[in-house]
């Protein structure tokens, strides 16, 4: 049950079931990307040319806007801002109009008689300029009753494909903002009053009217649903009387009575159909609105939740209020009915550390709100089903006297047993969800760091690791499905067995089986099937939703972050701290299996033991304690309103923490913080939104041109903007993926300056930019534009210190000193010593540095990609436009194991359906005693048939689910492997949210919903065909009525699907936008909070949710539009059958008449159910198609293995670049132009050049992340383009610019595949200076060495192989993460090592250590080092200076220094490097080498000795 769309086992269900194919809850994509997408689209109407032309004209405009909403979190999906965003292109306005006018000229001129379909006659509706409000808002009663207000949209959708402008904006009465406000107010009030379940009652209060309107409609339809079969009794009695009268020659009853009854039954059916439709419509609406409000509430809460709640630390006594609320909540939740009290876990949750990580919050938003949405749809069945059962029982008693009780007793006994079984499903589903979460979060982690995974050649291993989870998940799902199918088979056959029992009892108690009673009762028992089937499903859904609500409520009640700073806008200082102490939170406890190294070993018990220090770990007896969270202690300082203060200290000393404390990100444990003004925050990791450059800088402020220009220049961004295809309107990829590190950082600074706050916090913003650019920014931005603000700058750039007003020197979370530069130089020896490592440069004049802002754009620039197309970088998601092609069905069947699985399943279906018909025919023969058997024979055969039918049904279901889940497993494996093998350009142009959406939502649909949908579709189709065959066999005229009605039916569904499919696709794409925005904002919470922009982002998310709902609610309405119309057709069938029975009352036996009538009533419901199920199947297949697209259609990198490479290769590590040219994607300019160089084995090469000169590109070509366009690269004589990627990448090591750590342990990060011994790992950690020299296997001493790389508060914080690493390694400082990356390269032991700015985020001392390690640890190996800090490479063998993709200079550092007008010499001058420094560095290198080789000799001697 716990999936989500099982409720459909019966008719008017329809959870999210959108009868049209696009995917239910996913991002609808399918066919290949945009280009083919147009051709496909056109096939919809016969007017290709205009479409082509139109798409061309609209070019990027349309692509960027409607179909790939992804491409545009900028404006929340509304179209209007598009216009302003493209002001720079005057053409846009004219484009819009020309597109609108020239749209369908040819089609209009075509004479009507050439178009065979009359509904396509007439003008094609033009595309509206503005979106209209949903007409339901103004519609009258009758229009609302039959959903006539949907007609204009259906008509438009039938005549041409819908465009985004056609989708009406959301009905103002259902807009998310007012509803959320009401709900929030009610929720707060109830929490205050100490209500139980405040969230549930707040929802009830908010949607009261809509909710109970649906309830009333359902009550009416439930009563009528029971009454129609009962009225049948009189109609059958009428035909029996006539039949008997005819055979006995008596006067027959008047025909008027019969016709009256036929009309009566039809009228009841019509009312019942309207009731059901409105019940579902209002239920779905309540669900959709509740979901919207919950998403909004969850988002708002995620903006203010405290760090402690996020980390899952116990709320300490310092917030009694939060404590009380939580306790209350927990108590309540435990009392919750029918759920495994989520409070149970939650109570210890608060203290046991499964906090509210971003993954869990996203889960609340995507999964939990969806479950609530699903449950609201059919909620009322919970109370109406028992009610209709009672009424049915009464009517059965009237019909069959007390014999009915026998049948009913079976139902009464059966239902509780089924409900128990369903409960067990619920528990199993919880376990499955856990595995799924782990699989999804692992997938997400891999996708986020895909570049890294490729560098290391780890793809296959990650696929295997996912496979482990996947197999467990599929096995669990198969067991769950088998149990559920058994339940289904039993519940489907319960009415059969019940009626069997009742009839057997009835006949045994010496009653004659009269057709009137029997078939009216059969119809009644059949009418029970609906409520009985629905009840367990709905109970399952509601239990799911209840636990989801409990989770959401627990989240909403969790502790909020109080801004601990007091505001004194009129105080003398900008910032004051008095005796303040702060702490980070404990690491949330991890599900170790979810982590990256642990998939292989089950570590369930670790969680229990995490806390107990006596657990001995694998590395001999090192105690595995969690590292203590980092703390800042006794911080005291005051900063004036226009002061520039630098914060310095070694790696892990607490610089970033101090800024985080000021930004309100760290929890204050004592003391006070006073802020005198607003603040802007520039974190170390720039948070970049997937929107235009301009939006990223404005960050919600109004545009002020002059100020904006100044900011751009001060941050030397002008040069970069000039290179972007659309200047500052160019869109940046997710997480800033399409711009270089330096550009991200400068955007980050520009945003902080533009924001114009009075306190600016900057966390090492200059580390990622080149020295001269750093200087330019420091002079023009930090000292210039920000001159009159309070600026706090954490930095490793010691050259800025003498230009700062004061310096705060941090050490181990405490302040060493706060003083001016001169005083520190005078008074502190330690400070002088620290500075001596960097030659301090004299103040340089600003202008020199300003020369040409940081030039060329580095890394794949989105550049010319879509010169014409308004700078959208993200590829619009493929939206399939036709229905799913047959090839996808074939792929699906093949993926299930064999193409023969399909016929087997179909055969089982036919046999089980046959058994069903024969069972009922037998009953009809029994009532008319056709064969004259004895009572015992009739009863025996009847019972046997029932059992056979139940068994066959079960077999059919099980075979379907097993084949389905196998197919799902195969397809996902293909897709993941293929995606990991996709070239980097795919990841640069595809938003991560879209990939994750496919791997979570679409897979969920394949696993849990598709097989269900197919089962029910096949079932209903088979039943309908069987019934029609049966009717036609006895009433030939029925065929005449059936043909036109069938045509109408096919037509109505086609008419409906034309627009429904499009609406659904829009909804899917819009949903992706909501997911993308949500995820993006979550990752930038620190930034959003520090800027105080929570409200703006909440408004954004609400706008996006409204956009999604505008399409989402239409999907419900168009389903109901169709249902009402199909029910009309069905009711015509009932009427026809009724009249046929009345008119042929003399010729056809009443037994058969009764059988047919009881069947036709059940068929009516089946008909529209079938259409809906077809849509569900298509939806599901859409998911298959999208996964299959990823599994087969993505372009791939070169193969992993080609020729055999000798295991020892490369022995020397000699690299030759021969005339190499490279561009990132087709159609982009060359990034490397004719690059040739020869690097000898064991040589150390430093690569320098301004940003965008092509430094990182050399690396990409070496690892073949991007294939070169011409030329060759040879390593030790082998052309690397001839060998497999895996063979190549596993032989190289890289220390990347942004060190990636995976969730897991230190061990799993250094050696994910357990290829090395603990000794090797410890040695790497020691060399990388992450642990002290006396720490390691066998040593339990505390790290107490000089190592500054270990977090302060030494004891518990020492790093162990089993220390937990959080997502992205966030529990380590950036410097420590870089040291880990270094350790990883050491463990790998490759002959060729590439360093990409590996020391950009560490202080001088650590930098020296890293350099020393690189010198000794990588001695004799070829080293390519891309550096920002010249100092780090001036001792290398040669320096290669890159400029505009070419080698400008290459020689030894001394030779280059001597070229007075050379680029390198200029760089040295700017960094104050003198010839003595170069000589000194060279000698030091030599000394280190000698030392290292001396050590090796000594070791060798000892060994041989």
Automatic annotation (TrEMBL):
Q: From start to end residue, where is composition biased (Low complexity)? A: 90-102
Q: Which residues cross the membrane?
A: 279-299, 375-398, 404-422, 482-506, 904-927, 939-963, 1016-1035, 1041-1058
What the entry lists under InterPro entries is as follows:
AAA+_ATPase, ABC1_TM_dom, ABC1_TM_sf, ABC_transporter-like_ATP-bd, ABC_transporter-like_CS, ABC_transporter_C-like, P-loop_NTPase
- Residue ranges constituting the ABC transporter domain according to the UniProt record: 616-837, 1215-1469
Q: Which GO terms describe its cellular component?
A: membrane
> What is its subcellular localisation?
Membrane
Report how it sits in the membrane.
Multi-pass membrane protein
Question: Which keywords does this chain's UniProt record carry?
Answer: ATP-binding, Membrane, Nucleotide-binding, Transmembrane, Transmembrane helix, Transport
Q: Report the residue ranges that make up the ABC transmembrane type-1 domain in this protein.
A: 212-544, 904-1179
Q: Does the keyword Membrane apply?
A: yes
| Basic and acidic residues composition bias: residue spans | 1-11, 38-87, 601-623
Region named Disordered: 1-115, 587-623, 845-870, 1334-1354, 1485-1505
Q: Where is the composition biased (Polar residues)?
A: 1338-1349
Q: Which Gene3D superfamilies match?
A: ABC transporter type 1, transmembrane domain, P-loop containing nucleotide triphosphate hydrolases
ATP-binding: is it a keyword of this entry? yes
Name any one GO molecular function: ATP hydrolysis activity
Its primary localisation, in coarse terms, equals: membrane
SUPFAM superfamilies given in the database record: ABC transporter transmembrane region, P-loop containing nucleoside triphosphate hydrolases
**What is the protein name for this chain?**
Uncharacterized protein
